[in-house]
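Please go through this chain and its backbone structure tokens and walk me through the local backbone shapes. Keep your notes short.
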Amino acid sequence: MFTMFGATLLLAFREIRRHLLRSFLTTLGIIIGVAAVITMVTLGKGVTASVQDQISSLGSNVYIVFPVAGDRTAPRPFRESDVEAVRNQIAGVVRTAGSVSSSAVAFHNGADWSTSVQGVGNAFLEAQSIDIEQGRPFTAEEEASGQNVCMIGPKVRDAIFVPDASPLGENMRIGNVSCTVIAVLAERGQGGGPNQDQDNTVMMPLKTVQRRFTGSDDIQYFVVKYDSAYSSASIQESLIDLLRERRLLQEGADNDFNIIDTAQVNQAIGAATGALTAMVAVIAGISLLVGGIGIMNIMLVSVTERTREIGIRLAIGALAKEVRLQFLTEAVVLCCFGGLVGIGLAFLFSWSLAGVIDVPFVFDPAINIASFLFSAFMGIAFGYYPAARASKLDPIDALRHE
């Protein structure tokens, strides 16, 4: 049996080689379909991973609470007492931390760089999983007294400090405020808002920024990290009730604050991009059907061209199933060839486009294997009718065919 299959496969390759250009053009539909499906799925996974990384940079199991404007009123900021009340009165809350920020220009050694200055504490760094690449966090004394120390993002370091030299211990100026660099933050990328680069920031103690930049003790927003063992919905409900009570909102009045749950945002974005990727992949998969129809068409032409050859094989003792297997093998080989070329092109396209749109290249072996197996199935599905038609030819009629 294996000998017969090997001979059949060899004959299939020989026949395809005889009409190499026609065979290649026939498989274009399969090639384009496989390449399109794999490319779209791979890029979709890359976009999903990129967005989820940005959301994860805000911290896991974290609420971000910020005030919103009313119909005719400006957003009412929070107070430090609000942050403390959330930390002390809601079960499941691990830590809370307020933050304020302002745009500023950083100066060092005659160089300047537009950036943002953010007032935070160590609890904020822990809640949002912000790592320190070099240096140390704030001390309790620096936070309590609002000393002029700062942590800088990688882009600030690269912009105004000497390359390959540690900025730790150096003095720099943020606006009119001088500060000592105590740490360089790890790279985090985009996140937190449109066009907001989290690597282009200078972090100082909260009280320092309030006193020297914003001129008030208002909290622009705060983060709440909660224990994943607790119900997220229950904690959020308690958080809303507490803030409404502290902000003296009447029953029926709209909340003058908003709460973002990073876990829910991550799940929603993953589901949305997954659904969009699947829809685009299905649309791209239509070309596979078109390619299958092309395979059937060329195989029917091949049966017509080789009618006399089929008649001779049947006349000298070939079985109908052997003829059927011969043409079915040719169809499967054509589709598998198209699948392999499509996978190769998809790899190149995905890798190139991932670099262009700046998302990670996420290679998924499952979709590649599935696409190859599906292309082989297309050869069986669309090659069976021409193969069956060839096997049912009458030997005498076939030999008379001119």
Observations:
- DSSP finds 14 helices and ten strands in the chain.
- The longest helix spans residues 262-305.
- The mean pLDDT is 82.
- The chain has two domains: 2-53+267-400, 77-255.
